[in-house]
Amino acid sequence: MSNQKFMRLIIGCLVIVAIVKYFFSPSSNKDTSHKTHQIIQYGKFWASQHIPQLNLVHSQEDPVKKEHTDNTEAQPEKKEKIQSNQEESEPDIPDDSPTDPLKIVHFDLKGAAPKVKYLEQIFPLLSSLGANGILLEYEDMFPYEGELSILKSSFAYSPEDIEEIKSLAKRHKLELIPLVQVFGHMEFVLKHEKYLKLREVETFPNSLNSLTQGGMDLVQDMLTQVMKKHPEAKWFHIGADEVHGLGESEDSKRWLEANNGDMGKLFLNHVTAVGRFMTKLKRGIKLILWDDMLRKVSSDTIKESGLQDLALPMIWKYIPNMDVKEIGSYIYKYEQAGFKGVWFASAFKGASGIDQKWTPINHHLKNHLQWQKVITSMPQYKSVRFRGIALTGWQRYEHHTVLCELLPVAIPSLAVCLQTLKYGSFDAKAQSEVQRFLGCQIELSKNECKGASFPGSDVYEMVQKINNNLESSFKKIMQSYHVRASFSKYHRKHNFANPRNLAFFKDELKKLMDEWDSFLLTFRQSMEAIFYPDTLEEWLEENVNEHIERLHEMVVDVERIIKLNGQPKGDPSKKR
Q: Which residue from 124, 380, 478, 528 has the fewest beta carbons nearer than 10 Å?
């Protein structure tokens, strides 16, 4: 009997354990099924991509939506593959950005892009000077692949170069932010015959027609390729400044007619569509765009678009006498529009003249002193946070214009500007630090850095000599007495001159030519260490060749005419 009781007790204990296990297990089959379903749902990015609905006349179909739908159906295998890679390698990015605002240096690569080995020298200097980020505006220097390979320059960075740049930035604690234009300043794309149909203005390559079939696909493909090379990026700049000609295409005119001529909304529809695409392409990515196109759009219209939840505006102004109150009005407006943060953009080069050769340090210092006032005023804006400032270094005003100052020429200006932001002014301490890092004596009154020893300082000093002396040395000899008296264009054309008079300046002319030839040989070698051949060719053509070629022509002419021993000029009629 006691054995039966004992067996019942054991069975009862087992039943109790089973009941406890059932009711208190960590997850039920139902929960597991639900989580699995969620994971599958999150993977539907490419199938459920959303483009904002446009208000079109009657039954007119939204061309952007149609274009996207067509593309999704036509290339499901490609999209699914990208989706799969994204799920495996692109988790959410935690918002662990520094508490302090970033100070990022802008590299404009649409001209005179530096070789990676020069970046290897310059990145540690930037970090030492107080920069903690890099804004890399790729343009045609990105190694686009497939159908987009037509976009890349002959000297574009290789995929290996990109990896090295990323490694250098990480090593020197520089946040790397890619920049890809998605609306305006798309000249490097729209100049190609293949993409002529995507222009907003048929005869100008400046801006994309955001409503035409193929436009959004192009932008998405560009962004996808760049993002694939930067999976670790926390910030991404989508450009979108100076959308010249917006509203002039037939597509845009029809849309504007159906939407009360709302140009602001036309702009916002495209950048918000790009924003939504980017936030799905890379979960957690934080976007930036230039603010100029937003300045004339009401805060209510911006808020209605939802842009404030997708990107932050970068307010830019590069002039030395910048109106601080004007900037304040923009900040207030963006705060009212619901943006939680703002970026600023100053300039350390490339903003004082479209063909500027020598960087005016004082010009850019004044610009930064004005920005410092704006930064100091930020606590008055309660709901908008200052996220950082980009010190822009423009290399061209646009894709088709001439080069501005070369990067090594602007290093002293960059150093002065970074230290000004660090100390709040360019005081004795800031000046001392600049001179310590650059190994030179800063003289603002003379706009120079004497005795420099920073990476690229040889190019800095040689460009200074070319800028100060090449043209002036040529003009000096041209203004000499005997050249003006006996070696005019008329004399040279008719081979008519007194050898005695030519002998007074012949040796001096030959010496000047030899000195510049020797100097330019060294200059070429220094430039080739930093830049690709196309940069050297263009810079010499724009700034040197005209004077050197004339000098060589004069030496050839003077030697030829001296050998004629002062013979009579030829009778033009006998040559007929």
A: 380
